[in-house]
Task: inverse folding
């Protein structure tokens, strides 16, 4: 009787343990690399600013319809901004309040230079996309609540 009860308990625990085991995310197709990078976050080390600027410029070119000259200028601007941002972060460290005015001035300079590169239509589209991306789209980033009928 005790052996049977022991075997049933062991079987139940084994079954319960395997049913709660996590499975690896299987990603296929074009998102496989992105998914792998997402789950490996923190294990990569610092990213290359030039690659990041190139990636973002390419994304902006696709979304805003930039020509080759605009894309090159935007990439150079993004790289300069990243380098300046890194310098300011190193200068002020975790004390963000101390460097706030300098960081705001750098951001305003970046926006002015970007506005000079893009056409007014492209800049307006970028502002719209930026607003939607940050949850400030047409509904202000708020969830809609359905009224009960």
Result:
């Amino acid at each position: 009787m005790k052996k049977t009860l022991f075997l049933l308990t062991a079987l139940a625990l084994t079954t319960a343990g395997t049913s709660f085991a996590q499975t690896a995310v299987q990603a296929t197709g074009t998102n496989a690399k992105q998914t792998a990078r997402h789950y490996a976050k923190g294990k990569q080390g610092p990213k290359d600013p030039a690659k990041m600027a190139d990636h973002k410029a390419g994304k902006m070119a696709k979304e805003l319809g930039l020509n080759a000259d605009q894309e090159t200028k935007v990439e150079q601007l993004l790289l300069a901004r990243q380098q300046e941002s890194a310098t300011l972060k190193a200068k002020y460290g975790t004390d963000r309040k101390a460097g706030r005015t300098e960081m705001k001035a750098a951001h305003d300079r970046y926006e002015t230079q970007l506005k000079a590169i893009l056409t007014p239509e492209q800049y307006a589209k970028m502002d719209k996309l930026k607003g939607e991306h940050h949850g400030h789209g047409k509904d202000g980033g708020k969830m809609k609540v359905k009224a009960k009928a």
